[in-house]
Amino acid sequence: MRYGHFDDERREYVIGQPDTPLPWINYLGTEEYFGIVSNTAGGYSFYRDARLRRLTRYRYNNVPLDSGGRYVYLRDNGSGDFWSPSWQPTRSELDAYECRHGLSYTTIASARGGIRSETLYFVPLRENLEVWRVRVTNERDAAADLSLFSAIEFCLWDAQDDATNYQRNYSTGQVELVDGVIYHKTEYRERRDHFAYFACSEPLAGYDTQRGTFLGPYRGWDRPAAVERGQSFDSVAHGWAPMGSHHVRLSLAPGETREVIFLLGYWENPRDAKFDPPGSQTVNKTLVRPVIERWLTPEAVAGGFAELRASWDSMLAVMQVNSPDTDTDRMVNIWNAYQSMVTFNMSRSASSFESGIGRGMGFRDSNQDLLGFVHIVPERARQRILDIAATQLPTGGAYHQYQPLTKRGNNDIGSGFNDDPLWLITGVAAYLKETGDLSILDEQVPYDNDESAATPLYEHLQRSLRYTLDRLGPHGLPLIGRADWNDCLNLNCFSETPGEPFQTTENKDGGVAESVFIAGLFALAARELAGIAEACDRPADAAEYRSAGEKMAGTIAEHGWDGAWFRRAFDYHGNVIGSGENDEGQIFIEPQGMCIIGGVGVENGMAVQALASVRERLATEHGIVLQQPAYSRYRVELGEISSYPPGYKENAGVFCHTNPWLMIAEAMVGNGDGAFDYYRRINPSARENISELHRCEPYVYAQMIAGKDAPTHGEAKNSWLTGTAAWNYVAITQWILGIRPDFGGLRIDPVLPAAWEGFSASRKFQGITYDITVRKAAGVRGRVRHLMVDGRRVEGNQLPPAPAGSVVRVEAVIEE
């Protein structure tokens, strides 16, 4: 069953009914001001940090799920009938409804009783504000007397404190109205440097800034007293729950359309300035007021929206494909690239499934997110790398997360996730392959943001590799620490006495449990660092790192191979995990993918055997599950992984992040049919027809899909903010379609399904536009042996240098 459809020409997903299985959301903003908006206008806004600079309040795990948002109410003053054009929160019956989620904008249109409305939500480029453009049309034969109400609830900035510290917060909320603009100035007495504002383009018939007054006693957002009676109360918040609402009267002739603009924005004064409160002459008229006045004009809004759309035209033009598969084209050309941008901006911090309070920017997460975004805006990727590296510890270790506002490591979470440092190498390698910008390696970068202890970025990479080599266990495999990629596999948990609470080791190495997965990642990182060393003319370093990677591959072959697949780990007691010796959890997906990507077993047949075991034991119609058999009971020596019911999340769910590793692995051994088969199984567009089962948005990847052991096999959870986005983009564009940046230039090395007869693509790379055509006969399974570059034959599959700004035509033929 579908709840909408793709409009590929406009690059929008069109939702045709409001009661989707879950709120289907979109993201506003691309730079520093961000917001989440659902198909019924639920969501919230924040500046840079979803915890520390939350503008509007939101209630997670509520009923309905997306309660709290950017609400507009319409009221027929003649009949007293009122409704929400976005359906929520009144949930009144609508004669028509349509939500269009586009790239960094959303429009929600509806009709009731002959009144049609359309609300556009977006954040203009370079601005710290959001625009709501409301257009109301009278489709009746007679004139219409209407009232339009806006409504948002202010958050008292720190979302954690806002949701818990009521004894203080009920007395601190402050709002004032100056020249029709609502200013939220809670905290201004202390900080004197930031506030929020809520403005309207029309003269006001009234306003409210106190939630309790606007809603009325014992009422919710579905039946506000001010809307029901058709007149605001002109309330001013002094404590309790500050909000913002404008009341505008509209008299529309038959066929007439009126446009009303609302602005919700954030303002921060210069650090060294001491300004009066927000409504004062200094701030209101000299600083923020000109911004407000500009964006309350239809011309500015139309121009800003056009500029936003044009920016996406430019970014998406870096990579466009035309293949035999519509779902592939739709995801590569639009939605997968878009989701990669969102994950780049958000990491895992703020979605329908992450509150924005508990998590900042993940070290491993952000490095992996670079892989799917670096080609779109490489200059932003460069800065992100430097920000991430500055949180690294002198040991080479890393904070697991850092806060986006302060860019400092999160001490609440700490470090000790021993895969983290190696991801910095993969992120930097991706940037260098895409840009050729070796100068980044010479940038002086501090450790733990201590400017007195800075070294070149290249040394940070060296310390990342050394961190693993300094922490090898009894089998010569890397120590897992608190966890590796799978945060729920906690192998340094143990209980000295059965039935007693578990303990965790606290020594510097985090215990003796070892990870085959980190070993495979090390083999990949060592190869990448060797390539970096060669690119910057350090042959001795390159030889050393290549040797270290080969030695680790040998260790994996000796201790990490179980006969038909790669083992997962060894626990605190030295017991093997992910082996035929185990009664449950015999085979795991992660080492099968990462060891092969790291080059282990590709030449000797181990990789092919491991992939056959995955297909036989882990593959389902809804994707590849994380392990089998699922754990049927809690096991203290394994930690959180066994706390989930079978088939969910890390306990044998389809953890989509890892599925692309198997796509890449299949491509590496030349199996295009297998790689593409796995790609389609979790492709959201390809799953659109089963939206009633999948439940999450059909235009973006989810973190997990319930596995075959679950009663709800095929149901997705945790959409949007997942490493699945970047890795799927890499898998399809760089390995299946085979357009892959490398240290020496762009490679054309597709591994296609046998039934395909080729594809075409346009790829901008280091100032050059490559128009690429790949051809093959149906049924052929092979590789590209040579290229025709502007009519000239080039042996191999790597493109030679070309003049900057040139357009190069490339033809490639896949041969057996």
Distance between the first and last residues' Cα = 41 Å
CATH C-level of the largest domain: Mainly Alpha
| Poorly predicted runs of 5 or more residues | 498-502
Write the CATH fold name of the largest domain: Glycosyltransferase
Q: Give me the Rg, rounded.
A: 28 Å
| CATH architecture level-2 label of the largest domain | Alpha/alpha barrel
**Order of the strands making up the biggest sheet:** 1-2-9-10-11-12-19-16-15-14
Mean pLDDT: 94
* Tally of strands: 43
- How helix-rich are the residues, as a percent range? 25-40%
**Pairing-aware structural class of the strands and helices?**
alpha+beta
> What's the overall geometry?
globular
Instruction: Please give the count of helices.
Output: 20
Specify the biggest β-sheet: 10 strands, antiparallel
The tally of structural domains comes to 3
Q: What portion of the residues fall into strands of 2 or more residues? A: 25-35%
Pfam families: GH94_b-supersand, Glyco_hydro_94
GO molecular function: carbohydrate binding; glycosyltransferase activity
Organism: Streptomyces aidingensis
Keywords: Glycosyltransferase, Transferase
